[in-house]
Amino acid sequence: MSDEELVRQALTGSSGAYEQLARRWSPRVLAVCHARLGRSDWAEDLAQETLLRGLKALPRLSEPARFGPWLCGIASRACLDWIKSAKRGRQRMSSLDEQTEELPSDEDDSSAATEHRDELARLMSQVERLPMPYREVLMHYYYDDYTYEQLAELLGVSAATINARLTKARQMLRERLKVEQ
Length: 181
Known about the structure:
Elements: H1 3-11, H2 15-37, H3 40-57, H4 67-84, H5 111-128, H6 132-143, H7 148-155, H8 159-180
Helix pairs in contact: 1-2, 2-3, 2-4, 2-6, 3-4, 5-8, 6-8, 7-8
């Protein structure tokens, strides 16, 4: 069923229709939030906030067929609102680079699984430290499995720019990970 049909059903009171939309678009919303905030723990909270805002604002959606891009726009605004909020105080985004996430420990994990989790945590830590344009393109490319053309349309740039950003992001990650070793 198309987004447009699901939006119309949700507007007539079908809660299952919005649930389907939320399931369909939540990975992309999470990618937008992660790219904007640079932290997965905060991104998950803001992705949930975005889905709630989307549900409340659904009657104001003028083009139901464009639900996904509309919801991603809400995600971007939710992240910007959160960054600017008084709850955050005067902490700058650049100061977040020094913060790290704790991985849950599980005594039953094998050493290979633990090593894999550590490598993944190292990689995500470096991805989260990339400048916004590079982080954003990487998140959409790998989270959402977007093509260059889809990314170009979403971000309002050419496919060549997407290629250049992905190439530069990967190069930056390789250099940063090499320095860490």
